[in-house]
Amino acid sequence: MRLRSLLTVIGAALLAVSFSGCGSEEPSPGPKTALQKVQLKLNWFPEAEHGGFYAALVHGYYEEAGLAVEILPGGPNEPVRQEVATGRVQFGISNADQILTARAEKANIVGLFAALQTSPRCVMVHEKSGITSFDELKNLTLAINENSSFGSFLRRHASLEGCKIVPYPGNVSQFLLNEDFAQQGYVFSEPFTAKKEGGDPRNLMAADIGFNPYTSVLISSRKLIDEDPELVRKFVTATRKGWAKYLEDPAKTNAHIHEKNPEMGLDILEFGAKELKGLCTSETVTADNLGEMTTERWSLMTAQLIECEVVGIGQLPLDGKGAFTVEFLSPAKASGKAASESNTSEPEADVDAEDKVGANTSAE
Asked: Are 206 and 118 in contact (CB under 8 A)?
């Protein structure tokens, strides 16, 4: 009897300890890891060309990477490259030709991720004009930023016989009123607006005449890359996820962009997202390796800028070295660094403001 009583007492004690242990296994909420604050400066007002960056924000990819990202809208005369070069913001958006011209002026900025493999730049003509190529741009009024890289390139590679060159107006009003009027634009912006307003736009793509800079390129400073490569890697990785998501399912992101820029209607954003699918990918760049860049493309752009006298001989390395890096587009290696196509540090300097003009459209 004594043995049975002893076993009963021991069993009760063990049961009590068991219940006590269950209560102690409840996880106690620990302190939340603080997110690293980061700013991204756009090259224009929020629109489809920024879709992947906003998608990374809207779908939480930046937050998952430990980043609290603030996307700052751009606009005419916003000095994006200058702000990145001087460290006022960590990241910005620019185009390859603008990155190169800024570097020629000693702004040590570096391209990290090329969102658009094919430039959306176009010249919009009237379909009834019968014009189907740049060689046929004759005897009309052409609205273009004449001092831009593309304007300089076009003067050398199209006859423009009898053409009157006028400043780009920033809207499609004159195009709708004048059948002998052509203008620059982005393929997912001005042509959509013109057609919606009853016009008959036909697009001559700048890439078809050989002018094809990487567009909507994510940039940072060489200083930040050297001092905080882990931040740069996190931002690039999350950005790539954002672009893949936007090209697959842009609806939620478009609603956010519309909220940030009401002049961008959901219809034009939907159209833009569809157009971007063909611009963000190529024969060698798919949804799996978005943002890739090559030395060949940067070298060609450098040569074209020298040919058009946008930059002088000797101002830039002919192989485009230093203007971009693919270091953060590959998984990190054990050493912490992957192969890079960038050069060593150079002195930083301020550069001219973005030379976009007009309202709510993408112009160089």
From this structure: no
Q: Are residues 94 and 204 in the same domain?
A: no
Going by C-alpha positions, the residue among 158, 297, 108 that lies closest to residue 215 is: 297
Q: In the prediction, which pLDDT does 30 show? A: 54
The tally of CA atoms less than 13 A away on the side-chain side of residue 301 is 27
pLDDT band at 77 (very low <50, low <70, confident <90, very high): confident
Cα 100 to chain centroid distance, Å, stands at 16
CA distances from 177 to 172, 181, 197, 340 (A): 9, 8, 11, 51
Q: How many CA atoms lie within 13 A of 164 on its CB side?
A: 5
Closest CA to 213 of 296, 114, 301: 301
229 and 175 both lie in a single domain: no
For 182, the token pair is: 């052509």
CA gap 297, 98 in Å, rounded = 14
| Amino acid 29: pLDDT | 56
pTM reported for the whole predicted model: 0.84
25 phi and psi, to 5 degrees?
-80, -5
Tell me the H-state helices in 106-250.
Answer: 149-157, 173-177, 190-196, 222-227, 229-248
Long-range interactions of 55-58: CB distance < 8 A, separation 24+: 55/242, 55/243, 55/245, 55/246, 55/250, 55/252, 55/253, 56/238, 56/239, 56/241, 56/242, 56/243, 56/245, 57/242, 57/256, 58/252, 58/253, 58/256
**Both structure tokens of 62:** 């930046």
**pLDDT tens per residue, range 169-187:** 989 999 999 999 999 999 9
**Domains in the chain, number:** 2
> DSSP secondary-structure letter at 326?
-
SS3 111: strand
Which one-letter DSSP state was computed for residue 61?
A: H
CA 73 to CA 260: how far, in whole Å? 9
Domain extent, residue 128, equals 121-209
* Same domain (yes/no): 167, 218: no
One-letter amino acid at 115 equals: A
